From TrEMBL:
Superkingdom assignment: Bacteria
Membrane topology: Multi-pass membrane protein
Intracellular or extracellular location(s): Cell outer membrane
Gene Ontology molecular function, alphabetical: polysaccharide transmembrane transporter activity; porin activity
Domain (Polysaccharide export protein N-terminal) ranges: 43-142
InterPro entries per UniProt: Poly_export, Poly_export_N, SLBB_dom
Keywords of the record: Cell outer membrane, Ion transport, Lipoprotein, Membrane, Palmitate, Polysaccharide transport, Porin, Signal, Sugar transport, Transmembrane, Transmembrane beta strand, Transport
UniProt record similarity statement: Belongs to the BexD/CtrA/VexA family.
An individual GO BP term: monoatomic ion transport
Domain SLBB, first and last residues per copy: 148-227
GO cellular component, one term: pore complex
Protein name from the UniProt record: Polysaccharide biosynthesis/export family protein
Range of residues in the leader sequence: 1-20
Length: 265
């Protein structure tokens, strides 16, 4: 009788443990994939709700001051800075509205939806030509004001976060959120992305070194990252050998006690 009980429990013990292969990132040897690398190097095109950082510099304080945003009259947040070298320096973060526009003081409303930051920079430079006198130098820089993403599921610290870099990998995003839990499925992490064409959904295997070649290895602003659970979580048997052994011993003790009690009746 005990063998009929022990064997199923032993199988349960073996199946319930999470193996190292399920927990380790980027296993195996990388393969070169020129096409995927080309996709990852395509410049990002701005979307609604993206934050764009605009810097306008000049030696002429008066020239730059007309582009300074009045925070009391504008819903966009802004900060200003005077460089210690004496150069006038203005920079601000602009949120792209539902129509794909940003509003820059003096320059007015600019549509940036679907443009790269380089194209937006060129737009601003062209607009500035109406305000720049001969011999005056103005420097314009446009870049993403960090990459915002939302991560949830089997992650240590779920939530919405911003990483202030121009390029963020999914591993950066996960590390910034405390790593995936032991019962999180690293082999099938989902990325949901809003694009001009609509909603797109991808899956990436982070246990494989070829994750570097995935077109979603580098996340984009406003991505949603969903870490699905392993089947071990629904079983509730534990993730380590010790946890699983404890579960098996508990179940075995319960069965034994039940049998003894039944015999004594």
């Amino acid at each position: 009788m005990k063998y009929y009980i022990t064997i199923p429990l032993l199988l349960l013990f073996l199946c319930s443990c999470v193996s190292n292969k399920d927990l380790s990132y980027l296993q195996g040897q990388p393969k070169t994939n020129t096409e995927i690398k080309r996709i990852n190097n395509i410049p990002y095109k701005l979307q609604i709700d993206d934050m764009v950082n605009i810097i306008i510099k000049s030696n002429n304080q008066e020239l730059v001051s007309v582009f300074k945003k009045n925070e009391n009259n504008n819903s966009n947040t802004a900060t200003t800075n005077q460089s210690f070298s004496g150069n006038a320096n203005y920079y601000s973060d602009y949120s792209i509205d539902n129509y794909g526009n940003i509003r820059v003081p003096t320059l007015g409303e600019l549509n940036v939806l679907g443009y790269t930051v380089e194209e937006v920079q060129k737009k601003i430079e062209d607009k500035l030509k109406d305000f720049i006198k001969d011999g005056e130098n103005v420097f314009v820089s446009v870049k993403l004001a960090g990459i915002k993403y939302t991560i949830f599921g089997e992650i240590e610290s779920p939530g919405t976060r911003i990483i202030y870099q121009n390029r963020v990998s999914i591993l950066d995003a996960i590390a910034n959120s405390g790593d995936i839990t032991d019962v999180g499925n690293r082999k099938a992490v989902e990325i949901v992305r809003q694009t001009i064409a609509g909603t797109e959904k991808y899956t990436i295997d982070l246990t494989n070194i070829d994750a570097f070649n995935s077109e979603v290895f580098y996340i984009k602003p406003n991505d949603y990252i969903n870490v699905l659970p392993l089947k071990q979580k629904s079983w509730g048997t534990g993730t380590t050998g010790l946890q699983s052994l404890t579960t098996v011993v508990t179940v075995l003790s319960l069965i034994t006690s039940t049998i003894i009690l039944a015999r004594n009746l």
